[in-house]
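Entry:
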Amino acid sequence: MTERVLILGGRGRIGSSVAQDIATHTQAKITITGRSPEMGKGVDFPLLVLDLAEVDKLREAIANSDIVIHCAGPFHYRDANVLKLCIEHGVNYLDVSDHRSFTSKALNYHEQAVAAGVTAIVNTGIFPGISNSMVRQGIEQFDEPKKVHLSYLVAGSGGAGITVMRTTFLGLQHPFQAWIDGQWQLIKPYSEREIINFPSPYQRSGVYWFDMPETFTIPHAFPNINTVITKFGSVPDFYNHLTWIAAHIFPKWWMQRHSTIEFLSHVSHLMTDVTNIFSGIGVAVRSEVTGKINGKDAVYCSNLVYENTAVAAGCGTGSIAQLLLAGKLKKPGVWPVEAALPTDLFQQAMESRHINIEHQLIS
């Protein structure tokens, strides 16, 4: 029987990339959702008009699916109701969530998912997602892994829609807890600029502290890790300076207003429509794991560069959907991707999608 995949928010840039990846690598029947019929014009998959607030309609759609993929961000505003309904109906679940509060809500359903035999994996896109699996692969090289340093760089809009802009500005509203030297410390968003030497074409680029779910899921999955650093930056570099101003100069009360987030997001998206021509819409991810191998200090560096950020996110989520549909990945419970996806399956998935990840061990 043909497997049925439901992609919530499948009309958006990330959701449509997930749908295309699954269609390329599986024979699954894919249905995407959107909030209005107009959103369905020109789509390649059957469209179900659905608002997540329509609980009865959502429940019916989930019950008629084999796997549900939640791409309807920003996740700052979402509860875990979709996951809860999936568990009730015994349906496997994935999402592209990227916010600490949502991830925490989802992980609270772990025991219920185990009891229902449901595999639910959160944070499955590019960052978090592929980045987390790069970290896991690095940690596995060490006898005593100690520190993780993740750096993310996105060119222009990344090929994504306005939702990603909202996510960026929402991430500037509050200080956040980071795991540093074995204790939780409060960090100011978009602080402590650091120059990272990414592969071509990005080379030396600036990144800043940014609140990501990895800051707490990685130390939970790998208790030996005593520091997790997550930093993010944009290309061209002047976007970094504008974002820094939004984080540090604009009044906090103003940045915490919905109307402000909408205004800044729309202005930024219009700007990237212009700069995308020059910067491209690619992504770079650099993972550095530090620790000991045979009693000696070492650093394991992994680098990924891909020409389209949204497509890369689709590959991250789509590859895990492919493994679930094929029965190659079954792990009841609610998991961040680094705790659920074995490295050998991750490597196979990336190779089949021609995503090249370069590795270097420095000792």
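The first strand starts at residue 4 and ends at 8.
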